[in-house]
Please model this.
Amino acid sequence: MKKIAVITGASSGFGREFVKQICMSKGYNFDEIWIIARRKERLTNLASKFPKQIFKILDLDLADEKCLQKYKNILQQEKPNVKLLINNAGLGKVGCFDKIALDDNMNMIDVNIKALTYITHVTLKYMRKSSRIIHIASSAAFLPQPKFAVYAATKSYVLSFSRALERELNDRGIYVTAVCPGPVETEFFKVASNNETPKSFKRFFFEPANLVVSKALYDSRRGNHISIQGKSMKGLQILSKVIPHSFLLKFIK
Model:
């Protein structure tokens, strides 16, 4: 039974960085790494950079139910031992709720919530003791975000779901870590912000993608249920716990 890692949203951003760090680390030894994203050419290019690693390239659109079913069918056919599942695929869009296209809002829900839940559910059947799940949530999960309303709500789901799942799987020895990064200059950030240049004060909160990913992998190995890179995002988490959201929302635009 081959030991595998599954990484969604692997064609860019955090997903690509996860593949890179896992392949370059001596601490991981997978028979295969399954990389999932819509753009096959990017996945193929990524796999070519690590010729010693065996990859399974799955060009799937996780907003499409047929693609989710295809992933499930592949699991049933191969019956692998999934040692690591990284649910990284995600969509975001900045703007007032009623100004963002309905399709964009629904796609955020489909990918950030529905696909993540589906992938986790069907994969768990093939996970055993000492396996690990990493879910990419966001610091936006800590409190409501005007002009990021749907995205923040979906990430609140990911954080809540991950923490509950971690307790449910504790007896099985399966570890779950929710990663809550702040803003990172990746392709995701550019798409979400409509390619607008971020305001100067926002750059104070930026974290390099490689540090977010290395911290996530470290926290996962340690069995930590949440991973937050950087003092500013840790501070935001604390503020969101001790100060009423109604007060904080007065200062968010």
